[in-house]
Amino acid sequence: MLPTTQALVLTLVGATLVRLTLTEAHLRYVNDWMRWPLLASGVLLVVVALLQVLRPGAVRTGRGEPDEQDDHGVSRAAWLLLAPVLVVFTISPPALGAWSAERSSNEVPAREAEGAELPLPPSEGPLEIEVVDFVVRVQYDDARSLEGRDVSVVGFVSGDDEGNWYVTRMSMACCAADASASRIMVTGADAPPRDSWVRVTGRWDPLDGGRPRSAMAASAVEPVAAPLDPYG
């Protein structure tokens, strides 16, 4: 791989990182706090590529042969750096959706249940809460603060093999590779299209053979636009 080719590869990778952060498409793959490290990395790669081109001996000699300073091997594996560039620009993978959620556990670890015992704040109408907050309260709130309260949640639609449907939200600690799903079964309403985003309003439907479950008896289901941060 010649220096100019190396510079081109670095430029493409760096430009891809910059593009992902400036368009906020990085939120499909990593947490928002990684925006600035990714942007800095992308700019650095472009600068390194520019220095690679401008350094003495980085171009071919008049005889059409590489300068002897550049007579060193670069692994062909370096071309694999172009793989994520091609994926982002040609496929633009979406955020994780129903397919991943349906294969994820709905159990929230006890270490993430802080605040589950706190009462819900008062509200004049339905109280909007996060899907994961609903699930955590079902699993760990012995005071059953959800009982009798009108709440609304926003998420995308997923299903199961038994024909039930769920309002779902994915969350991640670092990146999409460690994402997990929180799901609330919705009863009393027909299922919207899979992977569509909805706001579900209703009350906790607590019992299934005497065992608490994360389920909501819906009074209203309305479509909403997908949020900028699908893992929020």
Structure description:
With 232 residues, the chain is of the alpha+beta class. It folds into two domains: 3-93, no CATH class; 99-223, Beta Barrel (OB fold (Dihydrolipoamide Acetyltransferase, E2P)). Helix content is 27%, strand content 20%. The protein is built from five helices and eight strands; from the N terminus they run ααααβαβββββββ. The chain has a five-stranded mixed β-barrel. Strands 6-7 form a two-stranded antiparallel ribbon. Helix 1 (3-22) packs antiparallel against helix 2 (35-54) and helix 1 (3-22) packs across helix 3.
On the 0 to 100 scale, the average pLDDT is 80
- What are the secondary-structure elements, in order, as H or E? HHHHEHEEEEEEE
CATH architecture of the largest domain: Beta Barrel
How many DSSP helices? 5
Spatial order of strands in the largest sheet = 2-3-4-8-5
CATH class of the largest domain: Mainly Beta
CATH topology descriptor of the largest domain: OB fold (Dihydrolipoamide Acetyltransferase, E2P)
The domain tally reads 2
> Helical percent range?
25-40%
Question: What portion of the residues fall into strands of 2 or more residues?
Answer: 15-25%
Instruction: Tell me the total number of β-strands.
Output: 8
Report the sheet with the most strands, covering strand number, pairing sense and barrel closure. Answer: 5 strands, mixed, barrel
The unreliable regions are none
Q: Which secondary-structure class do the elements indicate? A: alpha+beta
